[in-house]
Specification:
The structure is a single chain. The chain is α+β, with helices and mostly antiparallel strands. The chain has helices at 5-8, 52-59, 69-74; strands spanning 16-25, 30-38, 41-46, 82-87. A hairpin with a 4-residue loop joins strand 1 and strand 2.
Length: 89
């Protein structure tokens, strides 16, 4: 699975309710993940997917999107970390 324009078209920015970034401890590395809530559906992506940068660029079009989400979620290494980059709630 990859992230492309067809995937992104399934959740227009106007319908995005919440964007949460978190990391998963993969023993020797951390995997940065993103959950996008649209209505009652949750889309889950991770940084190793082809098109991750396309997703991030797209989400930055949300009003008041927290641009420094990476710094907030990536530190400290190997510790649970979660940040809400956008919420309409």
């Amino acid at each position: 699975m990859g992230i492309d324009a067809d995937i992104l078209s399934q959740f227009p920015l106007a319908n995005v309710v919440k964007v949460t970034f978190y990391k998963r401890d993969e023993v020797t590395t951390d995997l940065i993940c993103c959950e996008v809530v649209v209505g009652d559906r949750v889309w889950t992506f991770h940084e190793e997917l082809k098109g991750w940068d396309l997703l991030i660029d797209y989400l930055q079009g949300l009003p008041s999107f927290q641009a420094d989400w990476f710094a907030a979620v990536s530190q400290p290494p190997f510790a649970e970390s979660e940040t809400i980059a956008f919420s309409r709630l």
